[in-house]
Amino acid sequence: MTETAHPDRLFGDIAIQKALISEEKFQRALVLQRVIANRSRVHMPIGAVLIKMELLTQAQVNTVLSAQGTVVADPADEAADADKATPSVDDLLCPLELSIAADKFSAVLEPFEANQSPPVIEAVKLLLREKEVVYGVVEDRLLEAYLSKNPLPMEPFIVANATPPEPGRPPDIQYHFDTDPMRIGTLLADGTMDWKNRGDIPQVAAGDLLAEKVGGIPGKPGTNVHGQEVAPPRIKDPPLKATKGAERSEDGQRILAKISGTPKLGLDRRIGVFAILPIDTDIGIETGHIDFDGHIEVNGGVESGYSVKGRSLNTREIQNARIDIGENLVSYGGVYASNVVVGGNMKASHIHNSTVEVAGDLVVERELFGCTIEVNGRCLIEGGKIIASKIFAKKGIQVKDVGTLAARPSELTVGVDFKFERDMKALKEELADLTQRKNEAEEIIGQLKSKLDALDVELGQVAQEQDACMVQKRQLEEKRRQPAIAQSPEKTGLLAELIEDLGTKYDALDSQVQSIMSLDDQVRQQITQSRQDVAAFDEQTRTAEENIEILQAAAELDTGIPVVKISGTIYSKTIVAGPHRKIVIPQEMQRVRIAETPGDAKQYEMKISSLR
Predict the structure, then answer these.
(1) Digit-coded pLDDT (tens) for 518-541
(2) Are 283 and 301 in contact, with CB atoms under 8 Å apart?
């Protein structure tokens, strides 16, 4: 509260305490007082304002002023001064509340109370100016039409409607190649797969256009009721990123092929071009192991004991092999007794007795038997079976049948991000290792500093011995030059021997100093190296912590789906688990949906329902 307003507030508190006026009416008087001051540049006492508004009499004002300890002015003089200094109350009093929207793009007028008479239009305009509402104000004829109603309606009247900014539209990314060429077929309505409808592998030449940003509309700024320009919302441009074999144009609007090969859109949405390695026979004794940074197209299969590493792979059959593929893998004839890691999607006819890790989706036509499968996307075996296998699928499992009467039970875990847990564990282990190595380096620095302090002490002691040696040598040389001694060959010879011994001792001490200084340099270099190691450990720790934050943020955005859908039969003793709960199927069931859901008191439960 300002110094000018403080006496007025005190006046109001006393008047309210004496039950002469209400707080609401006093606030209206304060508004009128400010309006009068803005328009006439004269401060009218609050008592005079209340008299003009016919809310208090002069006698009541005098009573309040007396209680306030203020000299009571002559009523006639005060009224005369007020009349001379200010416009009439009818001209200034605006019994309307002006409300400005939170976004400042509209303002409305409402009466303070029911059955209020309208003010003059000048009073409303003065109120608008006081609140700095200067843009989008309605025309005078509309305002006069509103003020012509007596009493004023209680419905809000929009007195100002400004221009909000127009949001733009980000451009779209148009791809000039088939972004999913490795599909193994089309899922038909009856749940079967048309395996022959594969599509062709796209081919591009160097310089070909792969993708570009098209369309998009820039936003337009707006203006709020205060006349201030408001920028449109920021448009989030879709990222257009290139990887190996491709490059972005200088304006960042297009991706072009750098080499000839097959274009690929990765899971990280980066576009690259990879060379193709065609193999007409099997991968076996004729080819040896394959390590190729591109697409590998095999007309035969992968024989037992061989390994394949590449960007993507199409093959018929995989037998007892090690497969490491960065993008997509398709095996038309199935996978047997193999270890397979896929960074994209995997599609196969069937998989037997294998360990498989897939970062994307796994689609199987017929069955999984005796396998351990980890899928960070969906596991789809909609027309087939899961038999005697352990399946971990973050985005859920869709299958026809699970188990048989004779096979050991399968274990199905859904909604759990195995890759997140593994990566997080590795990062935490890395953090622990970095902390230990940093502590060891800091301990070494402490030991080296102690060694440096000891060398300083030793150097000081040797330096003192050198100084003492030099003093003795100078004293003996001065003594040898004395006439009484210089005339005595015996004394001169003895002093010469002593001086020579001191010189030898000094040289030995000097060698010791040089040795200490050299060791001091080595220790300081070791300290510098250890400090560099500590700084490197700190940087690696920050990187690991940032990676943990990125992993956690990604996991929060891309949550798992703890659902298993069985369109056929699931046999008893099958274990179905989610992130928090698991269930052992008590009996054979048909066409069911099993899902982990939140229950009462924030407890989770495994719920079995009919499949629609």
Answers:
(1) 888 898 899 999 999 999 999 999
(2) yes
pLDDT score recorded for residue 3: 43
CA distances from 455 to 416, 442, 445 (A): 59, 20, 15
Q: Provide DSSP, 33-50.
A: HHHHHHHHS----HHHHH
Could you say which of 557, 575, 599 is where a domain stops?
557
| The predicted structure's pLDDT at residue 572 | 94
Where the chain has pLDDT below 50, the residues are 1-5, 75-76, 78-80, 82-91, 182, 184, 195-199
DSSP string of 85-115, one letter each residue? HS--HHHH---EEEEE-TTSSEEEEEESSTT
444 and 525 co-located in one domain: yes
Per-residue model confidence (pLDDT) at position 71: 55
- Residue 559 pLDDT: 82
Are 437 and 383 found together in one domain?
A: no
Task: Tell me the whole-structure pTM to 2 decimals.
Answer: 0.48
Residue 141 lies in a domain: no
The Cα diameter of the chain in Å comes to: 139
User: Can you give the CATH number for the domain in which 517 is found?
Assistant: 1.10.287.1700
- 436: Cβ contacts below 8 Å, ≥ 6 apart: none
The total of structural domains in the chain comes to 2
User: Are residue 292 and residue 356 in the same domain, yes or no?
Assistant: yes
Q: Are residues 457 and 383 in the same domain?
A: no
The verdict on residue 544 lying in a domain is yes
Distances (CA, A) of 8 to 29, 52, 73, 430: 10, 16, 16, 68
Query: 3-state SS of 561-583?
Result: CCEEEEEEEECCCCEEECCCCEE
Q: For residue range 15-45, what is the model confidence (pLDDT) as tens digits?
A: 999 899 888 888 877 877 776 666 556 678 8
Interacting residues of 135 by C-beta distance below 8 A, sequence separation 6+: 160, 162, 163, 223, 224, 225, 226, 227
Q: Identify the bridge partners of residue 598 per DSSP, sorted by sequence position.
A: 604
Same domain? 416 vs 435: no
Residues spanned by the domain of 506: 427-557
Whether 385 and 574 have beta carbons less than 8 Å apart is answered as: no
